[in-house]
Amino acid sequence: VAPAVASLRRLVIDPLQLDANTTRLFVSPDGALSYVPFALLAPDLEVAYVPSGTTYGVLLAEVSKRGEGVLAIGDPDYGAKPAPDLVAAAEVQRGSMNLVPLPATGAEVKALGTTVLLGKHATEQGLRDALAKNARWRAVHLACHGLVDPERPMLSSLALTPGGDDDGFLTALDVFRMEISADLAVLSACETGKGKVYRAEGIAGLTRAFMYAGAPRVLVSLWKVDDAATLALMTRFYAGWSAGLPVVRALREAQRFVAAQEAWKHPKFWAAWSLWGLPD
Predict the structure, then answer these.
(1) How confident is the model at residue 201 (pLDDT cuts 50, 70, 90)?
(2) Contacts 24+ apart (CB under 8 A), 1-7
(3) What is the per-residue pLDDT for 151?
(4) Angstrom distance (rounded) from CA 243 to CA 188
(5) What is the pTM of this model?
(6) Which of 103, 138, 153, 175 is the most buried (most CB within 10 A)?
(7) In Å, what is the CA distance from 205 to each residue of 25, 34, 130, 192?
(8) CA 261 from chain center: how many Å?
(9) What's the pLDDT band for 218 if we cut at 50, 70, 90?
(10) Rounded distance, CA 239 to CA 59, Å?
(11) Do residues 73 and 115 lie in contact, with contact meaning Cβ atoms separated by under 8 Å?
């Protein structure tokens, strides 16, 4: 990891000749840079991603708004019985995807949410109904499996509990059609920051969908994440944010906390998380 990071830093960060007083870096990535964890390249800076300068200007109108409460949804019922060893847990095939239960996400949302949807209640309709109960949420937190479709990014989805006519896949296209009035959307799942990269347009996928639906800040991951490390990071992140830290600083401090733990010091445990949108 270290040689790759050093090489990328020379290519991407060093030419910027940042002033020593610089504390924050905005990244509007193009092409392969969309999948680069800038938290590794600029560890001393607060890093926020924005689709474009124009989009950032539009989002600034949301700075003064503040919602209340955290709507958290997790541990969806995929139809399989949890096992002590999750690697050996029975997989449930949904479409072409094999899904295993995620009981750790239940602990995550219980620790963070003021309104919690778990198991059989973690459905798309349950999410829609809960969203309507608050004029604006402080955060909407979804902890589940993330499924990326790089060729058809609008079908990238979050795997929830199926129910009724709902197949359980909350796709990017579904989200584009929703109204998600929240200060922050947290997609606590694997690879939620991925999609299809369009030249000069950035990534099409779940991140853009949640921003379009009304969340001016979206926290996503760039690769498959560890359950225990994610729980620790999210708990620390919300604690910092609730204490008054800007969102981007709360994320940086949470990543530093996880990286300081011997078991999680490798960047794979903490560097995946990226904040898109407003940093404050």
Answers:
(1) low
(2) 1/40, 1/266, 1/267, 5/40, 5/41
(3) 86
(4) 21
(5) 0.91
(6) 175
(7) 23, 12, 23, 8
(8) 22
(9) very high
(10) 24
(11) no
